Amino acid sequence: MTQVIPQGFSKGHGTGNDFVLVADADGSAPLTPERVRALADRRFGVGGDGVIRAVRAGATGVAILDSAAEGTWAMDYWNADGSVSEMCGNGVRVFVRYLLEAGLEELPDGGAIDVATRAGVKRVVRRGELLSVDLGPFELGEMALVAADGLEVDRPGLLVSTGNPHVVVALASEDELAGLDLHRAPSLDPAPVDGANVEFVVPGAIADGIGSIRMRVHERGVGETLSCGTGAVAAAMATRHWSGDAADRWIVDVPGGRLEVDVDERGHAWLTGPAEIVFRGETLSPAR
Ligand SMILES: N[C@@H](CCC[C@H](N)C(=O)O)C(=O)O
């Protein structure tokens, strides 16, 4: 008989970028690609763009914990296809909301909590109902040619690292953005060795030091999603660069809602937005 091990989970999202979250404080239940794919499956599982395991630093020898102080919470982030990513900007904010909802941490308004990730330790700050994360310094890189269904000609894209890899492409109009078909992954030339998330942006006006953009994204290891936090940061920082650094605050409208990106005096990019837990449950499918 197949052994069934019930496992508790929570489901949360940040602007529609949704995640299955599981607690494994002592590190005794590592995720596998098969388990992640099963949990993230929208028909046969819970469904999500990614799966996140909450582990305590010091509990296991997992590499993401190496730089973190003992006891720090670590976000073990996986994409829906069973691959791991260095960083997830919406995921780390939803992760902290999960710790608060589960009673594992407390965070007064204005308070901060550090989270270990594969891209280093990130600070998350509560701002009323919103959560902000300091994603640290970002890096602008080389150009790549981007081809996507719905675009008649290939477009130049700018490589941006926010801990994980992105390519940002500027489009001319909202119609062009709406006309994209992101069912297939855009192709990149040259193709980054580890792949990349691809953001398509339409820049808006800059007024009173605040820029605005509309964005759609094809996430590495997932497909088109309603939002991508590190993608919003990459898109804002590429657009800021193209504008001659004309603004340090950017409003990023994605299909799932609105995010804000701010650059502080140290050149760190902060991502702010909503993060919600929408349900809890128990999986009953066979352990894999
Ligand atoms: N949705 C995330 C990014 C998740 C990881 C990404 N798909 C990758 O492979 O790098 C975000 O909010 O940043």
Automatic annotation (TrEMBL):
UniProt pathway: Amino-acid biosynthesis; L-lysine biosynthesis via DAP pathway; DL-2,6-diaminopimelate from LL-2,6-diaminopimelate: step 1/1
InterPro entries documented for this protein: DAP_epimerase_AS, DAP_epimerase_DapF
Binding-site residues, substrate: N17, N79, G89, N90, N164, N197, E219, R220, G229, T230
Major location (coarse): cytoplasm
A GO-annotated cellular component: cytosol
GO biological process: lysine biosynthetic process via diaminopimelate
Gene Ontology molecular function: any one: diaminopimelate epimerase activity
SUPFAM superfamilies (UniProt xref): Diaminopimelate epimerase-like
Keyword Acyltransferase: no
Enzyme Commission number, as recorded: 5.1.1.7
Active site: C88, C228
Reactions accelerated catalytically: (2S,6S)-2,6-diaminopimelate = meso-2,6-diaminopimelate
Keywords: Amino-acid biosynthesis, Cytoplasm, Isomerase, Lysine biosynthesis
Keyword DNA-binding: no
Residue numbers marked as site, Could be important to modulate the pK values of the two catalytic cysteine residues: H166, E219
Compartment(s): Cytoplasm
Family stated for the protein in its record: Belongs to the diaminopimelate epimerase family.
Subunit details: Homodimer.
Role: Catalyzes the stereoinversion of LL-2,6-diaminopimelate (L,L-DAP) to meso-diaminopimelate (meso-DAP), a precursor of L-lysine and an essential component of the bacterial peptidoglycan.
Record's protein name: Diaminopimelate epimerase
